């Protein structure tokens, strides 16, 4: 059974990083204490975008001072470095 009759569309996982950012902004806008749970936000993303997502989520957490919390499962060092405010892996290589 397809999704066509239900007006449901399929969204490629290529859009996953953009959806992470969009949903984080939505959760942030709620104004209540929120826990944003995300699994592998780096899926199909370039390392620079992955780093950006980590940095973006860190900034949302800092702005709300404990009302917005992120729990992420990731294999990406670039995402973690973005969360911690460090440079991307490619930026580290350029320094060497």
CA-based shape: globular
For the termini, the CA-CA separation is 54 Å
Give start-end ranges of low-pLDDT stretches: 1-12
**Number of separate helices:** 4
Strand content: 5-15%
The structure class reads alpha+beta
Number of strands: 2
Topology as a string of helices (H) and strands (E): HEHEHH
Rg over CA atoms, rounded to whole Å, is 15 Å
The amount of helix comes to: 40-55%
Rounded average pLDDT = 76
- Give a short account of the largest sheet: 2 strands, parallel
Sheet with the most strands: spatial strand order: 1-2
Supply database-style keywords.
single chain, disordered N terminus, 96 residues, 12% strand, two-stranded parallel sheet, 4 helices, alpha+beta
Summary of the model, kept short:
By secondary structure, this protein is α+β, with helices and mostly antiparallel strands. Helices cover 49% and strands 12% of the residues.
Overview of this protein structure:
This protein is 49% helix and 12% strand. Helix 1 packs parallel to helix 2 (47-64). The longest helix has 18 residues, at 47-64. It is α+β, with helices and mostly antiparallel strands and 96 residues long. 21% of the residues are buried. The protein has a domain at 34-96. The protein contains 4 helices and 2 strands, in the order αβαβαα. A two-stranded parallel ribbon has the order 1-2. The model is unreliable at 1-12 (pLDDT under 50).
């Amino acid at each position: 059974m397809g999704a066509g009759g239900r007006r449901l569309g399929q969204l490629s996982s290529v859009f996953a990083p953009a959806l992470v950012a969009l949903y984080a902004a939505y959760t942030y806008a709620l104004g209540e204490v929120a826990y944003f749970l995300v699994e592998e936000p780096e899926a199909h993303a370039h390392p620079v975008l992955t780093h950006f997502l980590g940095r973006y989520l860190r900034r949302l957490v800092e702005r709300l001072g404990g009302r917005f919390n992120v729990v992420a499962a990731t294999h990406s060092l670039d995402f973690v470095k973005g969360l911690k405010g460090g440079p991307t892996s490619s930026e580290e290589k350029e320094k060497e």
